[in-house]
Specification:
- It is a single chain.
- This protein is mainly α and 212 residues long.
- The chain has two domains: 105 residues, no CATH class; 94 residues, Winged helix-like DNA-binding domain superfamily/Winged helix DNA-binding domain (Arc Repressor Mutant, subunit A).
- 62% of the residues lie in helices and 5% in strands.
- It is built from eight helices and four strands, in the order ααααααβαββαβ.
- The strands form two sheets. The protein has a two-stranded antiparallel sheet.
- Strand 2 and strand 3 form a beta hairpin.
- Helix 6 crosses helix 7 and helix 6 crosses helix 8.
- The radius of gyration is 21 Å and the shape is globular.
- The two termini are 39 Å apart.
Amino acid sequence: MTDTSDIQPLTRDPSLLLEALRDLIEYLDSGAVEIPVAEQEVQLRAIAKAVEQLEKAGVPVPGPLRAEKTRIAAAIAVHREARQALAQLTDELTEILSDLRQRIGQADTKTAEAKPRIKRSKLPKTAKEVLREQIILALKRLGGKAKVSDVIEEMARQLDGKLLPGDLVWREATSEPAWQNNAKWERYQMVQNGLLCGDSPRGVWELSEDNR
């Protein structure tokens, strides 16, 4: 926020920010599904196998079966993205809490010495538009469909020598550098925009037919 008029209400009543944060956490946590994700994954594999067998046999796949496959895949994707968002939020809040303690003189000296505070918001990082272009380029080079690890590896080659300081900050919550975590978030947006398939197998990124 650069407009102080946006901040002033929060300085008078910080509880407004806390309430909004709690609402955000509740919203993300509501992404939990009634059926355990592990069970849904088993269901999805079974349905995907049935669809594949029908297609190989030249038998038309019933619409409800395809719809159920899409529904389960979407539910699993929403759950995973919510878990990732909560993990990243935990990482960010831990850093903010450490910053606050230092500002009011309550910081743990040993912790501060072992892990110097880094203000990630101040560090330049690769724009999401660039990450999107790199994801598309990597997938095209990999045949339009590939495992996440292979896509990230190809992107690393493409971005060699081009990554910015903010890209290299380590994300404790997801155990990876910031640019990889940001790329995975951009992948989620690309699925929403129809650039990538939303019903691909777990751990696989795939360009939609219109973007191959």
